[in-house]
Task: structure prediction
Amino acid sequence: MSTALEDVFHRVLAARVFKDREKLRPDYVPEELPHREFEIKRLGETLAPAIKGVRPSNVFIYGLPGTGKTAVTKFVLKALARTAAKLAVKAPRSCYVNCKYDNTAYRVLASLCEQLGVKVPFTGLSISELFRRFVTGLEESRGLAIVVLDEVDALRGEHGCDLLYRLTRVNSELSSSKVSLIGITNDLKFTESLDPRVKSALGEEELVFKPYDSEELEDILRQRARLAFVDGVLEDGVIPLCATLAAREHGDARRALDLLRVAGEVAEREGACKVTEGHVRRAQREIERDRVVEVVRSMPLHGKITLAAIYLLEKKGVREKTTGEIYSLYRDLCRSLRLDELTQRRISDLINELDSAGLVTARVVSRGRRGLTKIVKLNIDGSILKAGLGEDGRLSDLLP
Ligand code: ADP
Ligand code: MG
Result:
């Protein structure tokens, strides 16, 4: 083994930064959820009738990513099961599906069946047959089931909408059991696209999660840091800095926890005995780099070429780039790559997509008599963008 590599291993072994790194992972649900007392109480009140075997109202939960929707829901369901056990009453069954991972009607139903103990094949059945088995499974369980559809906005398309509709109607097909639904979404506009009947059925109760501010994020981080880090390894400014940086990104607790975890990992790699604000800044860059590389990697080639044109203009010191300037450079790049260029209209659409992904900001301004034009600004560090684009061998030669 090379000595450089051995050094790395020794440094990590010697460093005593983490006591239990897993406590910073996104799927860990802590014993307490600071600053969500109100939401926990509201959801608890809504679901409480389940203890008596009465069907709770369906609930629709929405809020931006990282505002604690999944954590609060799992927390309340766990508490409900614990209380039922203590009172020796029949606990409601809860079935949890994340529709972003199980993103077709088939997979959602297959997962629900499996959680009810009904065996189904990975593929091959019709949706109606799956649904029938799900209903049979529910009837056999003779009781109340709480079905959580997390990130339900990922369930799109005809089959997805149809499944949501049928789930909101399933109680009419059941005689010895009942179902309550909890729908969760990050997409605040999702309800607008829903079938009005599904919307009103799912939204019998609604719960909105607000973003955390930086003080609230600090409390959340402190609670986790106590469990995850060796006492005293965090310098005083570390938690406030993670909280401030994440608060700027719409108060996302997941981002804040990631930042803290990666800062610890950077410190560990360096063999440092303290985690400093410098480590947080480096962690921020690392996370940003990973995110940009990921976004760029999944882009179509012409999207990448458009970004390359924006990058080259930025290098030349042009901060505010017009669509015309970008398009003309994009065309030059296509020629040197011997590719047919897309129309300016398509490139304008691609620029809007880059805007949605957060890589650029595009805004339409009036240029007096010359009409409207779009001004594009790069939102990320040029060197990070270059790293992302450079992964594509076709582009790496074009970027200085
Ligand atoms: P959402 O589902 O709204 O996107 P999550 O519930 O997954 O957000 O929360 C993201 C991360 O932040 C998870 O690791 C979660 O445990 C943590 N988290 C969110 N809110 C709190 C809180 N109030 N207290 C402690 N941890 C929290
Ligand atoms: Mg979630």
Observations:
- The pocket of magnesium ion (ligand 2) is lined by residues 69-70, 150 (CB under 6 Å).
- The CA atoms of residues 126 and 195 lie 23 Å apart.
